[in-house]
Amino acid sequence: MKRDGAKRERYSHRRKGGMNMAHRKKLNCWEFKHCGRVYGGIMDGNFGICPASLEKRLDGVHDGKNAGRACWVVAGTMCNDRIQGTFGFKHKNCLYCDFYKFVHESEGNNLIAPEVLLRKLQEC
Questions:
Q1: How many CB atoms neighbour CB 54 within 10 A?
Q2: pTM (2 decimals)?
């Protein structure tokens, strides 16, 4: 009996929101927000392509494409229909962003600190 309970407990830790975490796709900001500011997106001609979707130095961070899961450290992203500035200016706004909160929650202890991400941007 105890053995079955232990199995259920381990299994429940691997599940989140009723879906096994191994099968859950990690969304990039443009997929989560549906902004259309990616190459070939519906808004790339209106507002231009988002710098987060082009920033290759952060490719793979939090399992995202380019800076798609670290957009808060990329200058010039657009939030609430306004172009944001550098990390120092925009970070306070990002703290309230639903995508920022989503990534922080989903990455947990694996979240890479902004300071580390900013150093990656300065390296190349």
A1: 14
A2: 0.77
Digit-coded pLDDT (tens) for 26-73: 999 999 999 888 888 888 778 789 999 999 999 999 999 999 999 999
Please state, in angstroms and rounded to a whole number, the distance separating the CA atoms of residues 95 and 23: 27
Place of tokens 């997929």: 31
Torsion sign (Cα): 43, 60, 76, 25: positive
- Report d(CA 104, CA 92) in Å as an integer: 15
- For tokens 């694996």, the residue is 110
For 106, list phi and psi in degrees, rounded to 5.
Answer: -75, -30
Q: Which DSSP letter does residue 40 get?
A: T
pLDDT at residue 16 in the model: 45
Question: Does 12 have pLDDT greater than 80?
Answer: no
Pairing of strands 82-83, 15-16: unpaired
